[in-house]
Structure formats: structure tokens, C-alpha cells
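Much of the work behind modern protein science is quiet bookkeeping, done one molecule at a time. Below is the pair of lines this work produces for a single protein:

***
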Amino acid sequence: MVSAVVGPYRPGARAVQDRVGVRELADHVGRSVGPGIREVAAAFLGLQPHLVLGAADAPGPEGRVWASLLTGPPGFARAVGPDRMIVDGGLPEGDPLAGAVGVAGTPVGTLALDPRTRRRMRLDGRIRPRGEGGARADGFSVSAERVFSNCPKYLQKRQPVALEPVGPGVRWRGSALTPELRAAVSAADTFFIATTAGDTVEASHRGGNPGFVRVLSDTELAWPDYPGNAMFLTLGNLAEDPRAGLLFPDWETGATLQLSGLARTEYGADGTRTVRFRIGAAVAALHPGRLRWSPPEYSPANPPVPPPVPVSGPVPGSAPSADPGTEPHRGSTTR
């Protein structure tokens, strides 16, 4: 496989596009990707109360990839000129990526998503030194290298309800899901995925009706890859590097579940695609300053979910099944 990057696409993305037969469409969509933050993108970013961040927790192939959630008043993440984003406040204490955002040059992928309007914007780049260009000492800034918007497909609509100023923070760490967390993942209608390849990181969204993520065991998940914008940035990265980080938000309590592990894509003879993910590490938290949202209005684009498959029992060395925290992580349950 050649190693050259063609336009906005790495070799892995090109390979998946060719396999699926969407290269021409991908070329058309790729024209929307640019290196700068346009005025409309800057205005959108400045209105958002949260931001998804993807990165590796250490340089090199040994670093784990994670997806994290930052929350703050609108304007806490904002554009400063056409090539820089500033984020005030930094990551919550105990977050797996807290150290990475303090290292200048760390590749990151970010996603600003507005459940109120079903709009989203992605910005990939590199961490700049703390305090540079107006960033607060407890925050960071990102040099924008690739900025683009995505369609509203599979986004559930929600409204903000309340900001919770207190919380216990990180409640549990492990390497296998507890029964409570398995139920939360099975009930989720949204998660975010961070992937990496070469010197780039992507943060992307996955959504569907509850049950679209299948819990195969305490350490393995699977989900269908629904038709999207034909870019295949996430699957392309996984074709080059299997490391991935998942973030499951409990919208109604503000709890988060972060998973880091390895993923691979399976291609069915009928043209379907399924991603299988094996958990290597997990963090469940109820951070102070979290935002709670209303129950969802599901996207009309969500495909129906097939009946659930039986879940296998605990694997050797799995985490205990005791309640990992003071407030249950319920997932995005149906109302």
C-alpha cells in the first residue's frame, strides 16, 4: 500500500473507498475539507457547550487512543483567526487525555456537535503550547489543519436541561464492562469514536436507535457501519491502525464511559459492514460541571435494529459486577 496522502484522504481511506466503490463521490465530498476555520464554522463553534476530543495518551504505537468530552459555557471553545482553536478549562481531573493536551505537537481530532440543531463540525490539528495566543493556563489551543462539516444523519435531537456543578469525578477504572455498564452500552443511541493513522487523529460520531451497539461479551462490542458521506475516514484509519477510543455519554445524567482498545471492520457478502471492538481499558465518570440533556427525538434516518443476541458471561479477569459509582450510568434509554 502506498503511503502518500491524496487530498484529504490517507491510503486507508482510499482503500476502503475503492473497496466500496465510492471514490468519485468521496472526491466530491472531499472538496469541502479545508485547512482554515471559516466564519460560519467559527460562529457555530462559539455557540457549543461541549466538545469531543480524540488523541493518544502517549506518543508512538504503545499509546492508547481515547475520546474525551469537554464541557463549558458557550465560547469556552472558540476560533482565534482562521487557523487556531482555543479551549478554556482543559479536561476533567483524571481524564485519560489530561496529560496529552499539555504536550505541544500532540495530534488531535475534535468534534463540535449541537444536538439542538443536528449540526456538527470536525477540526483536526495539533496541540499548541499552553497559554499561547490567549489560551488560559488550564486550557490549550489547537492549530487547525483540517476543518469540515458533516451531514445530520443519525443525530438524535436533544435540548439542554441543566448544568450540574458537582460530581465525584472518575468513579471506576477497569478492563471489562460490569453488568451495569453493559446495559448502558446496549441502551445507547450515540457514541463517539477516535481513531488514528500516521500523524492524524479523527473524532467522529456514531448514532442509531437503542440497541444498534451490540455487547458481545464483557470485552467486545460490535456495531453496523451505516451509509454516510463516503469519506470513510474512520474505517480508513482502522485499516492502517486498529487503535480506537469510544466515548459513550449518558445524556440525561451527564455520566461518561470511555473505552480504549482495538477495532477491525468486517465486510459482509451482502455489502454490509460491521465494526468489532475489543476493550483494553475503561473509565466511568460523573464529572463536576457536566451538562444534562433532554430525552431524545430520534433521527428519522436511523435504521431499525435487529433483535438482540445473547450476551456471553464474564471473561476471566473481568471487573467485579458491583455498582461502580454513586449514580448509575443508565445510557441513553428510551422514554
Q: What stands out?
A: Helices lie at 11-20, 23-30, 39-45, 179-187, 233-240. The two ends are 48 Å apart (CA to CA).
